[in-house]
Write a structure and sequence with these properties.
The protein has 13 helices and 14 strands. By secondary structure, the chain is an alpha/beta fold. Strands 4-5-6-10-11-12-13-14 form an 8-stranded mixed barrel, surrounded by 7 helices. The structure holds 2-phosphoglycolic acid. The site of 2-phosphoglycolic acid (PGA) has 12 residues, from loops.
């Protein structure tokens, strides 16, 4: 079957935040089809070092660029030449960070090309981008209670994500059982704390009660204990502080509007330590603003042997920034998002570097998602033991894709050995 690209078409789609986004379809001469639609971070939580999502003219300009400028250059190329096609996208863009065509534009083309090649060859994407040994699944860092830039600042908890991660699952069934139970229990506890709570959710589909982060962590700790007692699955806590969004550059303080507190850099570090000393936290992301590698290094030195110290906005899935983090021992894990860098090739290189240096790559969704479930396949293909996404709503298709992969692999499917556990 020929994997030569016959056609490339871009069009409009909407994401789960009801924002316009771009969808690209790639068709090969062998009849293979690859479709990808772009996710996007929230305005206040997008990393300052990630590629800009769209060209200056926005989504419609991106669609025009693909249909009029990029598609003619891709027709006739072999979809299997991923590295070449991704480098061509860089060349067409002509800037260091896809500022002209947009990171999302490059991302959806890159992913649609890979999907079209895989589809033509009759391979699932995780197998096409992985190896015959890509049979290890990934465990969700389930974002179940939201806040920060994904909710209403000052009313919701100040941190962006309060997660639970099941750590002793024997199958995806255990993952589903524990996460469903935890999700329901959190809702009940939120209702009990605030009888007037409307049952609201954030951009990700996580519950958003009007409580502080401390209360949120107390709820998650209780829920984890109850899940363990009821079904024997151990769940640990996770946090995405998204501290960049709390940082006031002028005043040089972290502003916790819901809590009614401001914290200096030193107080922020002290606060994170207090949280890590008090609650059974396994994963903590973006504990400081994205230029403060030293703050991450301090936390990593004290807790990196038992807690995943994760740089998302810190690294922005950027190889140079990851190299700096490795040199400074700033984190032991980082978030993998293709549209932060722009192409599968660039992202793969960052993941490969991380594996070689003992840094755990954690695949992740964006807060504005589409029906594209590529993050599940990428996590399996690239050996990411954890995958961060909201469990409910926009996370459901991702979870369903993991279940499909598990069924497809049958007896070969393995649960990952989780780092530090
Ligand atoms: P974002 O948030 O997609 O809005 O950037 C997700 C995250 O911070 O991991």
């Amino acid at each position: 079957m020929s994997t030569i690209i016959k056609d490339v078409r871009a069009g409009l789609a909407i994401d789960t935040r009801a924002e316009r986004t771009i969808e690209v379809t790639v068709i090969t001469e062998g009849g293979g089809i690859g479709v990808s639609s772009a996710p996007r971070g929230a305005p206040l939580s997008r990393g300052v070092f990630e590629a800009p999502s769209y060209p200056p003219g926005g989504v419609f300009q991106a669609i025009k660029i693909v249909n009029e400028e990029i598609a003619p250059k891709l027709r006739g190329l072999d979809a299997k030449d991923q590295e070449y096609i991704d480098s061509l996208l860089r060349e067409i863009d002509g800037t260091p960070n896809f500022a002209r065509i947009g990171g999302n534009t490059a991302t959806v083309i890159s992913i649609a090309v890979a999907k079209a090649a895989a589809n033509t060859l009759g391979l699932p994407l995780y197998r096409y981008l992985g190896t015959p040994f890509s049979t290890t699944l990934t465990v969700p860092l389930a974002n179940l209670l939201g806040g920060g830039p994904h909710a209403r600042y000052g009313v919701a908890p100040d941190f962006q994500e309060h997660q639970l991660v099941p750590v002793n699952c024997k199958s995806m069934q255990d993952v589903i059982d524990s996460c469903i139970l935890a999700y329901q229990k959190i809702r009940e506890k939120c209702e009990r704390i605030d009888p007037n709570w409307t049952g609201g959710k954030d951009d990700e589909g996580a519950w958003v009660p009007n409580i502080t982060d401390w209360q949120a962590l107390e709820i998650l700790t209780e829920v984890a204990d109850e899940v363990k007692d009821e079904i024997g699955i151990k769940m640990l806590l996770g946090l995405d502080c998204a501290a960049e969004g709390l940082w006031n550059k002028e005043k040089r303080v972290y502003v916790y509007k819901r809590e009614g507190k401001e914290r200096t850099r030193e107080e922020q570090i002290e606060y994170i330590c207090r949280l890590l000393d008090t609650f059974p936290i396994y994963h903590v992301e973006d504990i400081a603003e994205s230029n403060d590698f030293e703050a991450f290094a301090e936390i990593n030195k004290r807790y990196g042997h038992k807690v995943l110290i994760d740089g998302d906005d810190l690294i922005a899935c950027n190889l140079e920034r990851l190299k700096k983090a490795v040199e400074m021992k700033a984190c032991n894990s980082f978030i993998v998002k293709v549209n932060m860098t722009g192409t599968l090739t660039d992202t793969y290189r960052v993941v490969e570097f991380a594996h070689r240096h003992g840094i755990t790559p954690i695949k992740s969704c964006r807060s504005g998602e589409t029906e594209d479930t590529v993050i599940a396949d990428l996590a399996v293909a690239w050996g990411c033991p954890l995958n961060k996404f909201a469990f409910a709503e926009k996370g459901a298709p991702k979870m369903n894709r993991l279940l499909q992969i598990e069924r497809e692999l049958g007896k070969k499917a393995k649960m990952p050995k989780l780092p530090l556990i």
